[in-house]
Amino acid sequence: VHGGVPSVEAAGNMGKTKARRFRPPAFAPAGSLSDQVAGAEAGEDEGSSPAAELLEKLQHPNADMREFACANISKMLQQQQTIPAFVQRDVVRRLGPLLLDPSVVVRETAAGALRNLSACGGFEVCNDMVTKDIMTPLVALLKETSVET
């Protein structure tokens, strides 16, 4: 409200609330998640790093937990300094099977994480993805989705 006159935004949204899309909270027990993953590269205990913890959650029986892990991995893979920690922990082989997960949202978030890895990781990471046979589950996913539509 400026000068007693309601703004266009306020008038157009009277009594309406925008539905909020579910976004899982960032997994950061202490400090920045990307800082912790980068620290893991420097020789921290493998079992205690956020990268290791998120990769572990990819095997969780609950689809929401697998989606949460994929979403956080996807977000972190947008930062180049975190990519080596995930590549060292075999992120490609752990995400690949999730492209065929029974849960559609898990498949989508796993595909998004692999997309971010390929887009932000450069040629060597993409070459490594092919070497680690990411194409087999990807082609299976594409065949499955082309039949559904």
What tags apply to this protein structure?
149 residues; mainly alpha; Leucine-rich Repeat Variant
String of helices and strands: HHHHHHHH
Poorly predicted spans: 6-10, 27-46
Q: What CATH architecture of the domain at 50-147 would you give?
A: Alpha Horseshoe
**Number of β-strand runs:** 0
Give a short account of the largest sheet.
none
Computed over alpha carbons, the radius of gyration is 19 Å
Proportion in β-strands: under 5%
Derived structural class? mainly alpha
Helix content: 55-70%
CATH topology of the domain at 50-147: Leucine-rich Repeat Variant
Q: What overall form do the CA principal axes indicate?
A: globular
Organism: Micrurus lemniscatus lemniscatus
GO molecular function, one term: unfolded protein binding
InterPro entries: ARM-like, ARM-type_fold, Armadillo, SYO1-like
Region (Disordered): 1-50
How does this model look, in words?
InterPro entries: ARM-like, ARM-type_fold, Armadillo, SYO1-like. Residues 1-50 are annotated as: Disordered. One of its GO terms (molecular function) is unfolded protein binding. This protein is mainly α and 149 residues long. It has a domain at 50-147: Leucine-rich Repeat Variant (Alpha Horseshoe), CATH 1.25.10.10. 60% of the residues lie in helices and 0% in strands. The protein contains 8 helices and no strands. The chain has helices at 8-12, 33-41, 50-57, 63-76, 83-88, 91-95, 104-131, 135-148. Helix 3 packs antiparallel against helix 4 and helix 4 packs across helix 7. The longest helix has 28 residues, at 104-131. The chain is globular, with a radius of gyration of 19 Å. The model is unreliable at 6-10 and 27-46 (pLDDT under 50).
